[in-house]
Amino acid sequence: MKKTEDSAFQEAMDGVAPLKEGERKAVPRPRAQPTAGQLRRRRDAVAKSSEENDRNQLTLGEIERVNPFDVLAWKKDGVQPRVFRRLAQGKYPIEATLDLHQRTLKEARDDVFRFISSSSRNGFRSVVIAHGRGDRGDDPAKLKSYVAHWLVQLTDVIGYHSAPRRNGGTGATFVLIRKSPSKKEENRERHGLK
């Protein structure tokens, strides 16, 4: 006589008792080996990350420190006073924000570099970096001081100013980014300078 699937199953399960609630244990499943495509994508991501880090020339060495409540202000030559004043007053729309709270100095360095590079690529002109004042820690205004120093090192940054009180005050900095060539061309056309 031929066994049916049900009877074969019943025979195999003969003598097996269900586990009690506290006896259940997760059995680790063997990890599947990554496919060739996954390995290639991992290699590409690591290469891109190390390429970005190679371009990141922002210093981690000793720098001049600022006071936690100091107002940060800097602009490159050629930035019009009216433009800089509007930045300081928060009159430009904020197109992106970077929050550095709870970041290590090295993480913040990488974040600032990537954030400004990405903002520039996307054509953003006005962004904000929230770094905090650093008035409660053992090393006052450490991150704030480094952010001020790094922004001067970045060629895409043409000015920065501490935010007005409503936008974070001296714990945040508005950053003005250089216009992309296409935005410069748009301005020329709009003002009839072409």
Main attributes?
five-stranded mixed β-sheet, alpha+beta, Ribosomal Protein S8, Chain: A, domain 1, 39% helix, 194 residues
Describe the protein in words:
This protein has 194 residues and is α+β, with helices and mostly antiparallel strands. The protein has a domain at 73-187: Ribosomal Protein S8, Chain: A, domain 1, CATH 3.30.1370. It has helices spanning 5-12, 36-55, 81-88, 105-121, 142-153, 181-190; strands at 73-75, 96-99, 126-130, 157-162, 172-177. It has a 5-stranded mixed β-sheet, with helices on both faces. α4 (105-121) runs parallel beside α5. It is elongated, with a radius of gyration of 28 Å. The N and C termini lie far apart (95 Å). The mean pLDDT is 87.
Tell me which CATH architecture of the domain at 73-187 applies here.
2-Layer Sandwich
Strand/helix succession: HHEHEHEHEEH
Based on Cα principal axes, name the global outline: elongated
Name the beta content range: 5-15%
Q: CATH topology of the domain at 73-187, anyone?
A: Ribosomal Protein S8, Chain: A, domain 1
Write down how many β-strands occur, each being a DSSP E stretch of 2 or more residues.
Answer: 5
Low-confidence stretches: none
N-C termini distance: 95 Å
Total helical elements: 6
The residue-averaged pLDDT reads 87
Pairing-aware structural class of the strands and helices?
Answer: alpha+beta
Q: Helix coverage percent of residues? A: 25-40%
Question: Which CATH class of the domain at 73-187?
Answer: Alpha Beta
Query: Radius of gyration, Cα only, in angstroms?
Result: 28 Å
Instruction: Specify the oligomeric state.
Output: single chain
Strand order of the largest sheet: 1-4-5-3-2
